[in-house]
From TrEMBL:
Its cofactor is FAD. GO terms for molecular function: oxidoreductase activity. It comes from Streptomyces pratens. Gene3D superfamilies: 3.30.390.30, FAD/NAD(P)-binding domain. This is Dihydrolipoyl dehydrogenase family protein.
Amino acid sequence: MTQTQAQTESPESEPLGYDVVVLGAGPVGENVADRTRAAGLSTAIVESELVGGECSYWACMPSKAMLRPVLARADARRLPGLSASVQGPLDAGAVLARRNEYTSQWKDDGQVQWLESVGVDLHRGVGRLTGPRTVTVTAPDGTRRVLTARHAVAVCTGSRALLPGLPGLDEVAPWTSREATSAQAVPGRLIVVGGGVVAAEMATAWQGLGSRVTLLVRGKSLLARMEPFAGELVAEALTEAGADLRTGTSVTSVTRENGVVVVVTDTGERIEADEILFATGRAPRTDDIGLETVGLEPGSWLTVNDSLQVTGQDWLYAVGDVNKRALLTHQGKYQARIAGAAIAARAAGAPVAGRAWGAHAATADHDAVPQVVFTDPEAASVGLSLAEAEEAGHRVRAVDVDLASVAGAGLYGEGYTGRARMVVDLESETLRGVTFVGPGVGELLHSATVAVAAQVPVARLWHAVPSYPTISEVWLRLLEVYRDA
């Protein structure tokens, strides 16, 4: 069936039967559909917005396109012979134009063509469960089409920004992550509320593009889920770049007066800005997908097993943000590969390998989740922090190295600031977690991810020789500190 046919069916049309129906055509849904289709299962995907989802249009891609010039300029300013050439402001218009190209001008033609090329039927509209293995799609013109799934329905609807319950907030027209990554002009003054990844990255991007950023963090530090030094180093750099960072600060009210945003904090201070971004958490997009028709709570996060089956439903899968295991695009795509393989195996009557690190178990969600925060400096981590490992009852030891002491760091210029930590399990002598903070460390992270996911013994890591002079040599320094202590 073509896309046009899928959009124009009448309410009287007979139900369409598929092996698999996927709700949500973001990267996660696309990967589930790709894996099940590759296994020979007929697959339909339902999307009410743009094919490609949050990551392509309002998150990963536009935010990194905005951040890259900011970080490149910061790197260049550390290099003698180049620094004098990059002291002026960025061309914000050019940066935002390039960002727009990265989002394909918020058009999904290319993504739709890809779905067609792999043989997945696209149904435009709002998809809702209307019973077991049944999805009803309401198209933009109001017509409905019932889709049935012989084997599985996969909920891949993602998450949305969670706004605080402040009175009158709707009238303020606050930014969420969507507006922050799609705005077409630089606000003169921007208040960012939050201390997590979105807050830190968007504060970095808009400060770099010329906005005067005030960052209000309710907690004691930025990036509280990472090692403490990560948030400390990022906070220092943001402050040095000109941002006004205030920790231990809560917003008690926000209004818009004559176009100006006015915030009052818990200390009674009044702060004014042109725009305000709330980066204060995420909520699942499950409030209007018919969960109640199959005995589940609308608006809830969906609990799953390691093959991504929803608890108590052998035909229903929840993949990506909706299961709250790891709200990261790459982790959702990993889950999608696992779920697709599990759906295909069950459809074929084959055994499902549910054991840890098996083909049908998303074990990395528990032990080896990687993440890069694209600030200046970058912060990258995988696995458990020291505090998390100790809280989980592991007998561990943290090994720290100043990244500036590594020969390769000098190639990044003067004043390199960074730190590395590996958390070693003293029983197995494998790594529970690794964190890097510093310019360029994002590209170091996959080596750490392999070491953590594969449970490589420290003794074997001695034989993984880092090239000289690169910042990868930090691995040798970490191992030396562990050995010599």
